[in-house]
Fold this protein.
Amino acid sequence: MMNSLKRFWGHSAKAPTLLTAPEVDPVIHDPARPSDTPRVLTARVRVRQQQDARSSAATDNKRSGACRTDAKRTLGPVMSHRERLLSMRIEHLRLVTHKRQVWLASAGFITAGDLATCRLEHLAKQHGWKRRTRARVRRLQRAIRMAASIDGMMPRDAMLLIAIHRRDVQALACETAAGLRRDLERFALSSRGERFLGTRHLPSLRRLKEWIRISESIVARRLHGNVVPPPVARAA
């Protein structure tokens, strides 16, 4: 056949390239498989399409993960628990009613940091607060300071601990999770505890253990920083 083509086109002319059949997927179209029915071929095509979709989805996930990483780098360092809590507005803490929120705003308390860092005695004399009002503001201030010191704790959790006479980190560090849970359950059964909790649940035993562990580490750091070194013996 090639000799006849050469005689027809001549030796100097370039013989045309023969058209080849399109590439066929050996997995889908295998002539050695006479039992392949159209249904089987359709199922294999569907499997191949699913594999291609999975590979493209994996590629998209990698790209989106890289985009999120770049976004985190551009946003800068993440705020700590203390910074985030002190920057929250008082109405977002859900500590007091709307009427008391308005009263606190009129006294100059907009964020939780305003309450945590205020000079309470000076403001009480300036505004002429009564003893009961001063005690309420002091309780809010103590709850915010305690929650800001312990990661994972919110001021409402600290108010619950203050209600059972655990008013600071030192008192919490001396407790056990089982004893703290028992006192919380007793408080929840009282009428005051029912009003305070409402539909909320008590903190779990795991959260109590974590709070106690963090409190113990805070107290240990404070004690370690306040330890007076022993006097150095003078050389004779």
